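Researcher: Can you fold this with cobalt (II) ion in place?
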Amino acid sequence: MKISHIEHLGIAVKSLEEAIPFWENILGFKCYSIEEVADQKVKTAFFKVGQTKIELLEPTSEESTIAKFIANRGEGVHHVAYAVENIEEALAEAESKGVRLIDKTPRRGAEGLTIAFLHPKSTGGVLTELCEDKNGK
Ligand SMILES: C[C@@H](C(=O)O)C(=O)SCCNC(=O)CCNC(=O)[C@H](O)C(C)(C)COP(=O)(O)OP(=O)(O)OC[C@H]1O[C@@H](n2cnc3c(N)ncnc32)[C@H](O)[C@@H]1OP(=O)(O)O
Ligand SMILES: [Co+2]
């Protein structure tokens, strides 16, 4: 598949309010967007880091995958997201090569991106998100 760069790293946190000061006051990044993604039951906070971004993820419900992740493994790195040229083609290619898809059809993610996840059990233990920016296409 054609990947241009790491779109973002997703980090699970219990509370955005409690997490953001480390990223702003210690690392010196500016949180430029806070957005709820109801479909994923998360509230996100974004920081630009050169070409890529950090996405902090706070669960908005006990059924959120982020709430389950924090309960089982604690706060920390949750997923790596790659910018792909064509998400439908990328998913078809991954599936044809035996990768287990979480999303067979892309969904709407934060920042208006079109996203889909690959299962960590078939990606070497790293939950993998594919993103395509279809805005303006
Ligand atoms: C807003 C949006 C955006 O960027 O635009 C986002 O990022 S939304 C970000 C939040 N949304 C998502 O994550 C959606 C995709 N994720 C999912 O559907 C789920 O989290 C799954 C990855 C399928 C895991 O769900 P499941 O109910 O199976 O959880 P589980 O706790 O039973 O875990 C099953 C096995 O997967 C492992 N596992 C769970 N989450 C993992 C993760 N993030 N990275 C690596 N491994 C992980 C567990 O340790 C366990 O392994 P063992 O069996 O060996 O113990
Ligand atoms: Co993400």
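Model: Folded with cobalt (II) ion in place. The chain has a mean pLDDT of 97.
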